[in-house]
UniProtKB/TrEMBL annotation:
PANTHER family: G-PROTEIN COUPLED RECEPTOR, PYROKININ-1 RECEPTOR. One of its GO terms (cellular component) is membrane. Keywords: G-protein coupled receptor, Membrane, Receptor, Transducer, Transmembrane, Transmembrane helix. The lineage of its organism: Eukaryota, Metazoa, Cnidaria, Anthozoa, Hexacorallia. PROSITE patterns: G_PROTEIN_RECEP_F1_1 (PS00237), G_PROTEIN_RECEP_F1_2 (PS50262). The keyword Transmembrane applies. It is a multi-pass membrane protein. This is Somatostatin receptor type 5-like. Pfam families: 7tm_1. It comes from Actinia tenebrosa.
Length: 298
């Protein structure tokens, strides 16, 4: 009875969350794209995360269509590979993780290694980092597209042998989840130590004090975004690993861990609003323009 109530609650709340998340992330994309003051290396990376969130929120509901498939052939395989499976959201999620890695490394060089200017991304080069992120995410998840087929059992499945599935999942989670998280944790550990616990970063004048304050604010924002992603993504990751390696029992909690995963994509716009003055101002201006197109923005 308890599970039925929870499932009914998720079915009612789910569509609302998807809608809020899609609108919120579109606002982030539009804000960075149109507001010149938001066009920075870090914000382009945040735009990429927002784009990945939109892809997740658009494709995740399509996974529910699988139970209604009742036809065979090429079209059903295409649906299986790209629309009614978790593959596209998985690719987008890994792109988000890798983008967070790039963001943490960028913050690391800005705070811990400020003299190594050559290693920092610029507005002209950040696009290559974003392209590399998506290529890597696609390559990591490519086997899921190749070996996913619509079986006679009326569901999407993998033609890959089970033992190879386990090997692939282990390698995938190591390369796309655990190693990136280790890099992120290392970078922010060094950043926090540098900003808060080392004497050499203590400001000597007003300009240095302002710079240190701005760095702390940006690091807090980046760290909160990363923490929210890890907390929301990790339960689903553990569920997938347990399901693939041991099978059966983990499938019972997919609805719950999947719901937590969706929350991450919905929460991001709110994090941007509450923690970033620039994004908050941009959202206000966009909403003011939509509500009153004739109003002159200051």
């Amino acid at each position: 009875m308890g599970n039925q109530i929870v499932n009914a609650f998720l079915k009612v709340l789910g569509p609302l969350l998807f809608l809020i998340g899609i609108i919120g992330n579109f606002l982030i994309v539009i804000a960075v794209w149109k507001k010149r003051s938001l066009r920075s290396t870090a914000n382009y990376l945040l735009l990429n995360i927002a784009a990945a969130d939109i892809i997740c929120l658009v494709f995740l509901p399509l996974t529910l269509v699988e139970k209604y498939l009742s036809f065979q052939g090429l079209f059903s395989d295409v649906l299986c590979k790209f629309f009614v499976s978790f593959h596209v959201p998985l690719t987008a999620s890994f792109a988000s993780i890798l983008t967070l890695v790039v963001l943490s490394v960028e913050r690391y060089h800005a705070v811990v290694k400020p003299l190594n200017a050559g290693k920092r991304l610029r507005e002209g080069t950040v696009k290559y980092a974003i392209i590399a992120v998506w290529i890597t995410a696609i390559l990591l998840t490519l086997p899921t597209y190749i070996y996913s087929v619509y079986q006679n059992t009326s569901k999407c499945d993998y033609s890959l042998q089970e033992k190879y599935q386990k090997i692939y999942v282990s390698i995938l989670m190591s390369l796309a989840v655990f190693i990136p998280f280790i890099v992120i944790i290392f970078c922010y550990f060094r950043i926090i130590r540098e900003l808060y616990f080392k004497n050499k970063v203590e400001p000597q004048n007003v300009a240095a004090e302002e710079d240190a304050r701005a760095k702390r604010k940006l690091v807090k924002f980046s760290l909160s975004l990363t923490s929210a992603f890890i907390l929301c993504f990790f339960p689903l990751t553990i569920t997938v690993i347990l399901d693939k390696l041991y099978g059966g029992f983990a499938t019972k909690i997919y609805n719950y861990t999947g719901f937590i995963f969706v929350l991450q994509s919905v929460l991001n716009p709110f994090l941007y609003t509450f923690q970033s003055t620039n994004f908050r101002q941009a959202f206000k201006e966009m909403l003011k323009f939509k509500l009153c197109p004739c109003c002159k923005l200051n």
